[in-house]
Automatic annotation (TrEMBL), chain A:
Keywords: Copper, Disulfide bond, Metal-binding, Signal
A GO molecular function held by the record: metal ion binding
Disulfide feature: C74-C78
Gene3D superfamilies documented for this protein: Glutaredoxin
InterPro entries attached to this UniProt entry: SCO1/SenC (IPR003782), Thioredoxin-like_sf (IPR036249)
Signal peptide stretch: 1-33
Family classification: Belongs to the SCO1/2 family.
Source organism of the structure: Nitrosospira multiformis
Keyword Metal-binding: yes
Origin superkingdom: Bacteria
Protein name: Protein SCO1/2
Binding positions for Cu cation per the UniProt entry: C74, C78, H165
Organism lineage string: Bacteria, Pseudomonadati, Pseudomonadota, Betaproteobacteria, Nitrosomonadales
From TrEMBL, chain B:
Signal peptide: 1-20
Keywords assigned by UniProt, alphabetized: Signal
Source organism superkingdom: Bacteria
Protein name, as recorded: Uncharacterized protein
Amino acid sequence: MKYISKIRSGIYRKYFSAMLAILLLAASAGSEAATVLLRRPIPLLPEAAARLNQVHAGKDPRMWQLVVFGFAHCKDVCPASLANLSMLVKAGTAERIRLSGIFVTIDPDRDTDATLSQYIKAFGTDLGYLRLEGEELERFKAAFSVETAFYTKNAGNMLNYQVDHSTTAFLIDPAGNIRVIFDALTDSTDIEDLFRRNRTLFES
Amino acid sequence: MIRPGTLLPLLMVFSLTVSAMQIDADPRTIVSFMDKALSPELDILSVTTDISLDDHLVFQVKTRGERERGEAADHLLLRILHGKVYVLLVPINKGDGDKVLMYESMLQPDYPLLPQVLEQSHENDMSRHLKVERLARGVELTLPLEWIDFGKEFSFDAYTVSAYVRGNTLEISRVHDQAGKGRDGSNKFSAITLLNKLCTPQRLRSRAD
């Protein structure tokens, strides 16, 4: 009997280890978002700043830019981010802040220019998109520390795969500095408040 | 047909494989190897980071055990590389109170990631805002997000050490355990990564269910 109870306690210990690992995984995946107004603005690399400016070429060069990352095949996270982005551009305009919104695709293999153009239109006419490929996209993502993970994407499956990506969004000043980092899904009201209450930021 | 007795171990194997992959992939978490040769309170199991609702960066260090009284030199130490080497020091003995001390040292190439001697930190503002809370078998250290320079890289690790405070100097005489042991402190990442939250439609759907 003692032997059996030892085996049982061993199994429970193993179950406990498994449960602990799962709990740790859940904890690591569930971190809270935060809106951070940077004390020290982060200057973007000239290449990244130039790419963003290209999206709204010909428009007012003193524009602030809201940037989110995503992919058009995303069913609910990216649409919610883009809806918030569109709402924020409107809120900024109402406060007389020159502001544009840019959606950067992390999945250029599926997101063609035609797809993105159509996709963006669904969220209003005040948004633009940026589609980069290969090393250029990797450098652009690195400039914003954007994380992505592709699941089941391989030579035999280039259409139906899942993508994980960070939902962090960025407010960029006209000089090409990151000034605010926030979560595109959860923090849009913080940014609306910022437009209303921190006018000096936008006059700097 | 799969017998109920075999299903659970199978599920365990799959869940552990997936968990290990995910945890290793996330630079915000360190899962430490258990070392039964150490006293439980000196054996670090994990270090996790999180952002609190009031915009603080929270480090949670879990150990295999805890103790009320014992060797006074034993401390839990959180090392942060962020322009300099910063060290946050908490006594292992719960009976010694919830005080946290902050030390720093210049970050120099070819120097050990945890220097043996550090000076008291000059960042008084930061020291005032540091908080420590005892958990069951662990501690939670909280520092304001404002302290972080998001243009710089960030790295952290946790240790249990024997350390002595002499005036403004901290002397580390022995390292008992290191959470990232054998990984040569390579979890260096952009500070923005701390704020990044990975999302996927699938994960959201399962949350809604």
